[in-house]
Design brief:
heterodimer; A: 115 residues; mainly beta; seven-stranded mixed β-sheet; four-stranded antiparallel β-sheet; globular; B: 111 residues; six-stranded mixed β-sheet; five-stranded antiparallel β-sheet; 54% strand
């Protein structure tokens, strides 16, 4: 029973490049959340998605960041033209449908380093 | 703006003692609360969830919720060195279930 999977686990990009972070939710989970954790900071909500729908993107910067959760395949968090301030750990969490959907389980994270 | 505040610590307790972690929240609409444990360099791991006023016990862990005081706590009994980690308090409310977290409390259990 695999947990939430994220890849890559570590990603190094130079300023101006694009970063693509992938997340496969736990089996049977239909809700995906992305969070960012900056050094010495808490987890900050970025976006909440269900299959083919963005439900809440209130925590995502308006520029350069986008997210999707297609009908088939993993959820993708895309950061265009990365800057040093984007260096952080990006965690994906998933939750099941129904009444248990408040309970989120986190993946191992992607550590992004922008040089 | 919804805020979750945690005593920033660090908190240091001897092995076998009770560790008390506290959290307050500003949004009265918050319905559900979660405690996650995060080891350095790792991802958050769910420890406890609590939805109703009162206490909820699971093994050595007890979560307490007081919605009138907007206060959540986590007690760890018989603390072990393996409990040394950062503990994150998160709250959710409304229809989208996103979690708002505090900055975390670093707990060190000394052998």
């Amino acid at each position: 029973n695999a947990g939430v999977m994220q890849n890559p686990r570590h990603l190094v990009r130079r300023r101006g490049q694009e970063a693509r972070l992938r997340c496969s939710p736990m089996k049977g989970h239909s809700h995906v959340y992305w969070y960012r954790q900056l050094p010495e900071e808490g987890l900050k909500f970025m976006v909440y998605l269900q299959k083919e729908n963005i439900i809440d993107e209130s925590g995502m910067p308006k520029e350069r960041f986008s997210a999707e959760f297609p009908k088939e395949g993993p959820s993708i968090l895309r950061i265009q033209q990365v800057v040093r301030g984007d260096s952080a750990a990006y965690f994906c969490a998933s939750s099941p449908p129904g009444r248990a959907r408040e309970t989120q389980y986190f993946g191992p994270g992607t550590r992004l380093l922008v040089l | 703006q919804k805020e979750v505040e945690q005593n920033s610590g660090p908190l240091s307790v001897p092995e076998g003692a009770i560790a008390s972690l506290n959290c307050t929240y500003s949004d009265r609409g918050s319905q559900s609360f979660f405690w996650y444990r995060q080891y350095s360099g790792k991802s958050p791991e769910l420890i406890m969830s609590i939805y109703s006023n009162g206490d909820k016990e699971d093994g050595r862990f007890t979560a307490q919720l007081n919605k009138a005081s907007q206060y959540v706590s986590l007690l760890i009994r018989d603390s072990q060195p393996s409990d040394s980690a950062t503990y994150l308090c998160g709250g959710s409310g409304g229809s989208n279930y996103k979690l708002t977290f505090g900055k975390g409390t670093l707990l060190t259990v000394n052998p």
